[in-house]
Amino acid sequence: MSDPKALPSQGSASAISPPTKQSLSRDQQRLIEVFQRVRYGRIQRLQIRNGQPVLGPDLRWIRMVKVLGANDPHPLVKAADFLLRQEAVSFFQLLESIGDGEIHNLEVRNGLPFTFEVEENLAR
How many CA atoms lie within 13 A of 49 on its CB side? Predict the structure, then answer.
């Protein structure tokens, strides 16, 4: 059964109102906060269970540091709620389509998911 706070699928009636951070599941909210802390970098491995991110103590990331750039967390990291950018909405829809698995080298740019790798096989 899917999480009641998970993002609505595109085309549903509730998709009319723009999704916000508070409309996410707790684990999705925590992952958004990690993206904002990282700001620029990548998360090496992220487990996915039932379309939801699994955030455990072993979650690791590599942060890119710019010599003459913004290295602080994204300013929205302290905001309790805000409208989600399309990158975040699409990212969580992709996780839902994966279901159970692991993604690799999740690139974060300016606090948003950008690209990631997923291992697949013929059975998938």
Answer: 5
